[in-house]
Amino acid sequence: MNATRIAAWLTVPARWYLGLLFVAACLHKIADPHSFAIDIATYDILPLSLVNLAAITLPWIELAAGAMLLVGWRVRTSSVLIAGMMAVFLAALMVALARGLDMSCGCFASQGADEDPISRLTILRDLWWLGLALFVLVFDRGLVGIDHLLDRRPE
Amino acid sequence: MAEAAVVAATAAAAALVFNTVRPNGGLPLIARTPYQVLVPCPEPGGAVQPIPADDPALSYDRTFLIDARPAEEFNRQHLPGAVHLPYDWLDPVPDGDLQQLVEAIAASGATRVAVYGDGGRPDNGEHLGREISGRGIKNVFFVSGGAPELFGVATP
């Protein structure tokens, strides 16, 4: 088994991990978009007119991308989405840290800054997730999941 | 890439539909009023900044005014809408009172807190401001010169 084949198999647990992560992350945001809107507003990046729209739609994109990764359907598409979202989240985090904001990242269930403050560790954690998404994007060969059943292999 | 855009657009459309059928009508697509985003200060010491007595921000709706002087001075004259919490150097503000005030500030939707006291050296308004700021409220100001500057009379 060569290195590429091993990497292709490693994308399967990576996919499940990222899929579960994104599905878990979106649930509270879908259940309570108002709290998520406050989290977004706290970053002070988006204009007020876009805060609610982002709070309503972003969790559903997370849900779609996470679920697609979990079931192995259109894996490259979903990993592009996940990587894109992670890049946006990272940029927002870095801006917030540069401004010295003492706040929660709002990534999971809304918490106060005391319980879940943003920090350089948050950046490292998000970089790790971004790296995993890129790993899946590059090395996935549709080994397990719906893509495999449909025999849809990435080129 | 195009497929990712289609998925994102479809998910966003589903989100908008779901939002409209929520029992309470869902979140408005556009927020009408800014969110309360006062966040705790990084430093527990509590930072405050001076604000001139003639600054128009003192009369803004979203400025939370606090009078730190004794009751008789507050009753004699105070800024409209000011909340009274006397700050006595020898008798610290009870913890519960301070916490109640901080919660009232957080719930008020204010974007700025302005405290005025006796304008002395040290100024009790400034120190009350530091206490409030140390409880996690941002954008706390103290009025330079305190009540004498505001009302043009010397505090006894």
Protein described:
The complex is a heterodimer of chains A (155) and B (156). Chain A has six helices and no strands. Chain A has 155 residues and is mostly helical. Chain A has one domain (3-149). The longest helix of chain A has 29 residues, at 3-31. The radius of gyration of chain A is 17 Å and the shape is globular. The relative contact order of chain A is 0.17. The mean pLDDT of chain A is 86. With 156 residues, chain B is an alpha/beta fold. Chain B folds into two domains: 1-32; 49-151, Rhodanese-like domain (Oxidized Rhodanese, domain 1), CATH 3.40.250. Chain B contains five helices and five strands; from the N terminus they run H-E-E-H-E-H-E-H-E-H. Chain B has a five-stranded parallel β-sheet with strand order 1-5-4-2-3. In chain B, strand 4 (112-116), helix 4 and strand 5 (140-143) form a beta-alpha-beta unit. Chain B is elongated, with a radius of gyration of 21 Å. The model of chain B has no long low-confidence stretch (mean pLDDT 85).
Present the secondary structure layout.
The complex is a heterodimer of chains A (155) and B (156).
Chain A: H1 3-31, H2 33-43, H3 48-71, H4 75-98, H5 120-139, H6 146-149
Helix pairs in contact in A: 1-2, 1-3, 1-5, 2-3, 3-4, 4-5
Chain B: H1 2-20, E1 49-51, E2 63-67, H2 71-76, E3 83-84, H3 95-108, E4 112-116, H4 124-134, E5 140-143, H5 146-151
Parallel strand pairs in B: 1-5, 2-3, 2-4, 4-5
- State the share of residues found in helices of chain A, binned by percent: over 70%
**% residues in beta strands of chain A:** under 5%
Total strands of chain A: the figure is 0
Order of helices and strands of chain A: HHHHHH
Superfamily at the CATH H level of the largest domain in chain B? Rhodanese-like domain
| Beta-strand percent range of chain B | 5-15%
Radius of gyration of chain B: 21 Å
Poorly predicted ranges of chain B: none
In CATH's first tier, which class of the largest domain in chain B applies? Alpha Beta
Q: In terms of structural class, how would the helical and strand content of chain B be classed?
A: alpha/beta
* Fraction in helix of chain B: 25-40%
- Taking Cα atoms only, what radius of gyration of chain A do you get, to the nearest Å? 17 Å
Spell out the helices and strands of chain B N to C: HEEHEHEHEH
